[in-house]
Design brief:
Largest sheet of chain B: 6 strands, mixed, barrel
CATH architecture of chain A: 3-Layer(aba) Sandwich
Strand order of the largest sheet of chain B: 3-4-9-6-8-7
Low-confidence stretches of chain B: 367-374
Strand content of chain B: 15-25%
Number of strands of chain A: 10
Number of helices of chain A: 7
Number of domains of chain A: 1
Strand content of chain A: 25-35%
Mean pLDDT of chain A: 92
Mean pLDDT of chain B: 86
Order of helices and strands of chain A: EEEHEEHEHHHEHEHEE
Oligomer: heterodimer
Structural class of chain B: alpha+beta
Number of strands of chain B: 14
Structural class of chain A: alpha/beta
Helix content of chain A: 25-40%
Bound molecules: adenosine-5'-triphosphate, magnesium ion
CATH topology of chain A: Rossmann fold
Strand order of the largest sheet of chain A: 6-7-8-3-9-10
Distance between the termini of chain B: 28 Å
Chain lengths: 232, 423
């Protein structure tokens, strides 16, 4: 493994059983990601972006081929190992923010740290810091139904970032946001990528997102059709 | 972590209020039933102990075997000695001799001719000795409808219903026609001193109460008695103590080879009471079981619905790195809290309603024609059991309902749950 390489995908195939036969959503993908990348998988709807992200996030397993995410090979990925990997090292951001509506902003962001059994004082410090990153220090007591879409997505970013994960997987994070809010959260993530050296992998077909990416991987019908670094 | 879940649980009304309500209703009913059954059972024990079985009862073996026929020809002989033995061996207990008798009661007109007539069953008790507690035990003063209690052996009490049927008034004479212990015909005149109503159909229909000294003469039963009833010093029936006593007594005095030897039976060991107590125990178990199953099914379904609503949350928690097992366990823990909360509320309501029902409901109308020794007023009774019994089905049903619903939720693949999260 090359120094700083955190994801290796080797000839990955993913098929789903449908009816009697099967549907191949990913068909022979090979990719590598290094630490600190700010990259995105782009492509038309149904091209397999979410499927790929789910496998990287150990929420799903390859049909053929192998992955190695943060030193853990897909071949030895038990549910327990997968849960631990996600808990400690991976943050997720979703198109629909998926905040827990009965909990306050503070509590939503605190949740991953509770799972990690971080002591209360440390937890509080980390949550407040994460909310400061996304500019929501004044909303800690609000509940999700009281927030705007942009604010909600920023809470979700804080929740993904609060444990300072090595890898953040963001699936269409701007799909429900207007242009202004999209730019705001993208700048936030760019800043965190820079400050914490967190690796970001997006799945998107939003041009606003694509404009921020430093590496663009195009997917079509489950195959990589191009993979290019963007000069800035 | 636990606090975090519980906080969420109680903030989410739809997740807590509805199941708590279901549990509370079920538990209320269980507690109420429990108090009700215990009340009826307790009254029945008290009533039967006083009127029929004692806490323990001594009879001849043969009398016991034919007890339905009031077989005074098989009565216990040498009762004075037996009473002395009982007082020595079981100090502190109260003993009361009784004779059950039956016969034709004849009300004559002024010429001494039969005016009305009817079959009656009576109980001879110690009405007249100053030390006797039988008048209190049978609550005779309060049961008087007309007239007064007997003051001499020649006076008799008739049940009010019987007296009305015979058209006799207190102060008038009646003739008891019966047979002695040895089978001879016996005709004796009594004066009706008063009429009584016990509130138990079996006693009120054709009942008489007379003093045991005169009935001994009537039935030729000197130094003999049908039954000797024993009452524990505390006044309350204690099954273990009574059973131990009867075992000890029978060991010393009872001879299976000799059908006229005495035998002591505890209340539970006597005929119908055995069955009654067993039925009641069984009934209690059944009530709890039925409610447990019914509540589990309702909670299972509401758990499934709630679970559907929570797919998003589950998917998210999985994505954040919580193990399925852990989520499943947290759902069960949540449900236990729901169960406890519902049980507390339900128990409070159950006890409240039970307390209202301790005054009782009159079922005299329903009891007409019944042979059961049961009072016409049914009361609930609150015993320590009532404070915790509802928690058993309450907690068990929520945990079971959630466990079943949880299996349904988690049978789906992680990726599937996750998909629904993105929908
Ligand atoms: N569990 C599944 N069972 C069957 N087919 C599936 C399943 N998951 C995904 N697919 C199929 O795989 C293909 C890729 O799906 P995926 O969700 O990865 O697309 P996507 O690129 O994320 O699209 P979009 O931009 O619309 O989100 C689609 O054709 C989809 O129907
Ligand atoms: Mg997608």
């Amino acid at each position: 493994m090359k120094n700083g390489r955190i994801i290796t995908i080797d000839n990955l195939v993913k098929s789903f059983p449908i009816g009697g036969g099967e549907f191949t959503a990913l068909n022979g993908i090979s990719l590598q990601f290094d630490k600190g990348e700010f990259s995105g998988i782009v492509g038309p709807s149904g091209s397999g972006k979410t499927t790929l992200l789910n496998i990287l996030g150990s929420l799903d397993t390859p049909t053929k081929g192998q992955t190695n995410v943060l030193g853990t090979a897909s071949t030895r990925m038990s549910p327990k190992v997968a849960a631990t990997l996600r808990k400690k090292h991976i943050g997720f951001i979703f198109q629909t923010y998926n905040l827990m509506p009965v909990y306050t902003v503070f509590e939503n962001v605190e949740f991953p740290l509770l799972l990690l059994k971080i002591p209360s004082a440390e937890r509080k410090k980390a949550v407040l810091e994460a909310l400061e990153w996304v500019g929501l220090s004044d909303k800690i007591k609000s509940k999700p139904p009281q927030l705007s879409g942009g604010e909600s997505q920023r809470v979700a970013i804080a929740r993904a970032m609060v444990k300072k994960p090595d890898l953040v997987l963001a699936d269409e994070p701007t799909a429900n946001l207007d242009a202004e809010n999209s730019h705001h959260i993208l700048k936030t993530m760019e800043k965190l990528n820079y400050e914490l050296r967190t690796t970001f992998v997006f799945a998107t077909h939003d041009d606003k997102v694509i404009g921020y990416l430093r590496r663009i991987i195009s997917l079509e019908d489950g195959k990589v059709v191009s993979d290019a670094y963007v000069k800035k | 972590m636990l606090r975090f879940y519980i906080k969420g649980l109680f903030r989410d009304r739809s997740r807590s209020l509805m199941p708590i309500l279901v549990v509370a209703i079920g538990v209320t009913l269980v507690v109420l039933m429990q108090c009700w059954v215990t009340g009826i059972l307790g009254d029945m024990i008290v009533f039967n102990a006083r009127f029929a079985t004692g806490h323990v009862k001594v009879m001849s073996r043969a009398y016991n075997e034919n007890i339905d026929q009031q077989p005074n020809d098989l009565a216990l002989m040498g009762t004075e000695q037996i009473l002395l033995d009982l007082e020595n061996e079981f100090p502190g207990l109260e003993w009361a001799e009784r004779i059950q008798f039956g016969g034709l009661v004849d009300a004559p007109d002024e010429n001494g001719e039969t005016r009305t007539q009817g079959p009656g069953g009576g109980m001879a008790i110690d009405l007249l000795s100053p030390s006797s507690k039988e008048v209190d035990r049978l609550n005779l003063e309060k049961s008087l409808v007309r007239g007064r209690l007997p003051q001499v052996p020649e006076e008799i009490l008739l049940s009010d219903e019987f007296a009305t049927k015979l058209e006799v008034e207190p102060g008038e004479a009646v003739t008891l026609i019966t047979t002695t212990m040895y089978g001879a015909m016996s005709i004796t005149n009594f004066t009706v001193s008063g009429t009584i109503k016990f509130g138990a159909a079996a006693l009120d229909r054709g009942g008489m109460v007379a003093d045991i000294s005169s009935i001994r003469m009537v039935l030729d039963m000197q130094d003999a008695t049908g039954e000797i009833l024993g009452y524990l010093p505390s006044g309350d029936y204690d099954d273990l103590q009574a059973a131990a006593m009867s075992a000890a007594f029978n060991d010393r005095h009872s001879d299976p080879e000799d059908e006229f030897s005495p035998v002591m039976l505890s209340l539970r060991e006597q005929g119908t009471m055995t069955m009654m107590l067993d039925i009641m125990d069984y009934f209690k178990g059944l009530i709890i079981g039925i409610f447990m199953i019914a509540m589990s099914i309702v909670l299972w379904n509401s758990g499934l619905l709630g679970g559907l609503r929570r797919y998003g949350e589950m998917g998210l928690r999985i994505a954040i790195g919580e193990e399925k097992k852990h989520i499943y366990r947290s759902l069960i823990v949540e449900s236990v809290f729901i169960g406890i909360a519902g049980s507390v509320v339900g128990t409070a309501f159950g006890l409240f309603f039970a307390a209202l029902l301790t005054k009782g409901i009159d079922i005299g109308g329903m009891m007409q024609g019944s042979n059961m020794m049961m009072q016409a007023v049914m009361k609930a009774s609150i015993t320590p059991d009532a404070y915790y019994i509802g928690f058993i089905p309450g907690i068990f049903a929520t945990a079971l309902g959630t466990a079943l619903a949880g299996i349904g939720i988690f049978k789906r693949k992680t990726a599937q749950l996750f998909k629904e999260l993105q929908a």
